[in-house]
Design a protein that fits this description.
Layout lengths: L2 E6 L5 H11 L6 E8 L2 E7 L3 H7 L7 E7 L14 E3 L3 E6 L5 H10 L11 H10 L5 H9 L6 E7 L5 E7 L4 E4 L4 E4 L11 E4 L5 E5 L3 E4 L5 E2 L4 E2 L15 H7 L1 H13 L13 H4 L5 E6 L1 H16 L5 E5 H4 L10 E7 L5 H12 L5 E5 L5 H4 L3 E4 L12 H20 L5 H22 L2 H8 L7 E6 L4 H15 L2 E6 L16 E6 L5 H13 L3 E6 L11 E5 L8 H20 L17
Parallel strand pairs: 16-17, 16-18, 18-19, 19-20, 21-22, 21-23, 23-24, 24-25
Antiparallel strand pairs: 1-4, 1-10, 2-3, 2-4, 5-6, 6-7, 7-8, 8-12, 9-10, 9-11, 11-15, 12-13, 13-14
Bound molecules: 6-O-phosphono-alpha-D-glucopyranose.
Length: 607
């Protein structure tokens, strides 16, 4: 949450900063701002609108050194005075992502020293602290001294008005990477912001401080020692972060699912059999010892975990618990060191998931696996084992392709563990591998239903509430459908296991409450049909997402979306897609900001 860009060059960096911020807007979009150093002055522009507005406001500005920020408010309302960059005495300017926990004490001390605060943010203390140490004239040393006084998480970039060719950046608990160009350098919260200028990247490590000059850079670790970090060439290309022919990133990302699934499955589908090594070199030693699974994740990623519980218990016969990361980290649980702790995260930087992982480790868990879409992210680095989903950058705040790729990885985990436990014979393994190979094509067929789903969506635009029903491994899919709808259309949507209907939510059902039902042709279909009758008998309007041979008929009050295939254990993946499209088209009907829904952010790096 919150996006940072910084640049030093021998040309105007304002376009680099603005283009970078446009790429980072998914991280927060309450307000935005930038500072450039020019003629020994800090020129600052801030705006409570979107980055596009900042671009207009800063169009006349020139500077060869600058820092910029797009904000998701934590301390202080979204307003121009709280927007970053923050400035101390016209000399020091700072952008910051993260939370400074001891800012109140520091603020009191700095006020005492005569510093005047002009915002309600925690960040402003960083600017004044650096200023207070800058008397020595060394911006890097002043920053290091200030950082030593901070408690909390940060990624920062700092400039000084009297230092026209240098900026300082640092990270601890929030992501930041250094871009290396030809006689120019940059920092950003993620690579997508820098593809416009370079693919050469250095991932900064926890506690690193980097002094960035025109011609070179110097990295210092948490102890202040000069260190070398490897230079990587990013595999991302600029097209993967362009909107192309689509109206919104969410629509683009929904349509990218066949390719994202194929990419994620590539290594596996080309091989003849599954081996633990796909989860990391140490998996072969760890997996045979594993007695149970504990999945920790938030939001959509948590729903992926909930689906996996059905697979892991039924196919691999291994006990599995799934917890909301923010709850797990604060409860007293009973650790079993033979449990494999699996964290699932698109971003790899969700604060609650990271804290839950560390909590698990602190209680004695050493078997840790990260399923993540961002290489080198904190959650990946802090786990023993890993499987990277290859969904490509996901920019829409509502997660789509990350979810379905997480599901296939969890299915692979299930198969590998099932095999090790003697529950997957050669034939079944080959059959599952074949089903996985077919999956991208099956998803493509579901995407072809888009026009019908767009029609169905018209029925929802004037509704205030919706109920989503599913049974078994499709209940988490109903929950994911409800989450998508509420996130982007602001319609209150709740999911229930269909069998629970009569224990409460049936009281809500009337013609104004659409009921969406995930109806795959599986063992629970007949039970589900009875639940649907209960809704119909109360005058409820049903929207049934059925698949091959479910024989549920369109009738008064029953709308059917007929999906072409039933995918067996992989059915939750297919059933996700129409629910994503439903939410998308309802949001279009309502005219909401699909990719940047109000109050939300994509990477939630605060508690
Ligand atoms: C935020 C996003 C969700 C996401 C959740 C977990 O709430 O808006 O789309 O599911 O965080 O994020 P993660 O990156 O850990 O999967």
């Amino acid at each position: 949450m919150c996006g940072i860009v910084g640049a030093v060059a021998r040309r105007n960096v304002v376009p680099i900063l603005v283009n970078g911020l446009l790429r980072l807007e998914y991280r927060g979009y309450d307000s935005a701002g930038l500072v450039v150093v020019h003629d020994a002055q800090l020129d600052r522009v801030r705006s409570t609108g979107r980055v596009a507005e900042l671009a207009l406001k800063s169009s006349g500005l020139y500077g060869e050194l600058g820092i910029a920020h797009t904000r998701w408010a934590t301390h202080g309302i979204p307003s121009e005075r709280n927007a970053h960059p923050h400035v101390s005495r016209n000399l020091i300017s700072v952008v910051h992502n993260g939370i400074i926990e001891n800012y109140e004490v520091l603020r009191a001390e700095l006020t005492e020293q005569g510093y005047e605060f002009t915002s309600d943010t925690d960040t402003e203390v960083i600017a004044h602290l650096i200023h207070s140490h800058y008397a020595q004239g060394n911006l890097r040393v002043a920053t290091q001294m200030a950082l030593a006084q901070l408690v909390g998480a940060y990624a920062i970039a700092v400039v000084a008005a009297d230092n026209p060719h240098q900026f300082i950046a640092a990270r601890k608990g929030s992501p930041l990477l250094l871009g290396v160009g030809e006689s120019e350098h940059y920092v950003a919260s993620d690579m997508s912001a820098l593809l416009q200028v370079t693919k050469n990247v250095v991932y900064l490590e926890e506690g690193d401080v980097v002094e960035v000059n025109l011609a070179n850079y110097r990295i210092f670790d948490a102890k202040g020692n000069a260190v070398q970090r490897p230079l990587h060439v990013s595999e991302l290309d600029n097209d993967s972060v362009e909107l192309g022919e689509y109206q919104h990133y969410m629509q683009k990302e929904i349509h990218e699912q066949p390719q994202a699934l194929a990419n994620t499955l590539e290594a596996v589908c080309n091989s003849q059999s599954l081996v633990p090594g796909i989860f990391g070199a140490e998996a072969a030693g760890i997996f045979p010892q594993v007695e149970s699974i504990l999945i920790l994740a938030c939001g959509t990623s948590n729903h992926a975990g909930q689906v996996a519980r059905y697979w892991l218990e039924e196919i691999a016969g291994i006990p599995c618990g799934v917890e909301v990361a923010s709850e797990y980290r604060y409860r007293t649980s009973v650790p079993n060191p033979k449990t494999l702790v699996v964290t699932i995260s698109q971003s790899g930087e969700t604060a609650d998931t990271l804290a839950a992982l560390n909590h698990a480790k602190a209680t004695g868990h050493s078997f840790t696996l990260a399923i993540c879409n961002v290489p080198e992210s904190a959650i990946v680095r802090q786990s023993k084992l890993r499987f990277l989903t290859r969904a490509g950058p996901e920019i829409g705040v509502a997660s789509t392709k990350a979810f379905t790729t997480q599901l296939v990885v969890l299915f692979l985990l299930t198969l590998v563990l099932a095999k090790l436990r003697g529950r997957l014979d050669e034939n079944r393994e080959q059959q599952f591998l074949q089903e996985l190979r077919h999956l991208p094509a099956a998803v493509q067929k579901v995407l072809a239903l888009e026009p019908q789903i767009a029609e169905l969506a018209k029925h929802f635009a004037d509704k205030h509430h919706a109920l989503f029903l599913g049974r078994g491994m499709h209940f988490p899919i109903a929950a994911e459908g409800a989450l998508k709808l509420k996130e982007i259309s602001y319609i209150h949507a709740e999911a229930y296991p269909a069998g629970e209907l009569k224990h409460g939510p049936l009281a809500l059902v009337d013609r104004d409450m659409p009921v969406v039902s995930v109806a795959p042709n599986d063992a629970l279909l007949e039970k589900l049909k009875s639940n649907l009758q209960e809704v119909k008998a109360r005058g409820g309007e049903l929207y049934v997402f059925a698949d091959a041979n479910t024989h549920i008929k369109e009738a008064d009050g029953i709308h059917i979306l007929q999906m072409p295939e039933h995918a067996g254990f992989l059915s939750p993946i297919l059933h996700t897609v129409p629910l994503q499209l439903l939410a998308y088209y309802v949001a279009l009907q309502k005219g909401t900001d699909v990719d940047k829904p109000r109050n939300l952010a994509k990477s939630v790096t605060v508690e």
